[in-house]
């Protein structure tokens, strides 16, 4: 079930990014190399961003994960972040229930400047996972 959410309300409750890790597929073979999960539509690798947020009431801060898709490690660092295109979905699997949060875009304050970075949508790579330089760009 999809749950509507106000992006600004959720973003205003975020205290900081704690970490960002690749989302890996379950593999019962303990010796196998981990395989990173991919976004169903874009095919981009998935990343789990752990954030700390606070409730409107006086509860202690809590942590949750927001999944994002990006061709490369998004390079997120501890600090403020804002998400766009948030989707909250409930799930029920093998008798367990939960809530999955994903975002289409994210912005994080540039370091060391205090100006906010422009909202980004991760580029879709034209050649697998390798970044493609724009036409006319020199390396």
Description of the structure:
- The chain has 139 residues and is mainly beta.
- The chain has one domain: OB fold (Dihydrolipoamide Acetyltransferase, E2P) (Beta Barrel), CATH 2.40.50.
- Helix content is 4%, strand content 35%.
- The chain has 1 helix and 8 strands; from the N terminus they run βαβββββββ.
- It has one helix at residues 7-12, and strands at 2-3, 14-22, 46-53, 62-69, 81-84, 87-93, 96-102, 105-108.
- The strands form 3 sheets. A 3-stranded antiparallel sheet has the order 1-6-7, with no helix packed on it.
- β3 (46-53) and β4 form a beta hairpin.
- The longest helix has 6 residues, at 7-12.
- It is globular, with a radius of gyration of 17 Å.
- The relative contact order is 0.20.
- Residues 129-139 have low confidence and may be disordered.
Radius of gyration, Cα only, in angstroms? 17 Å
Note the run of SSEs as H and E: EHEEEEEEE
Query: How many strands, which pairing sense, and closed or not: the largest β-sheet?
Result: 3 strands, antiparallel
Give average pLDDT, whole number: 81
* CATH architecture descriptor text: Beta Barrel
At the first level of CATH, the class is Mainly Beta
The strand line-up of the biggest sheet is 1-6-7
Number of strands: 8
Strand content: 35-45%
In whole angstroms, the N-to-C terminal distance is 46 Å
Helix content estimate: under 10%
Overall morphology: globular
- Low-pLDDT residue intervals, each spanning 5 or more residues: 129-139
Structural class: mainly beta
Output the CATH topology: OB fold (Dihydrolipoamide Acetyltransferase, E2P)
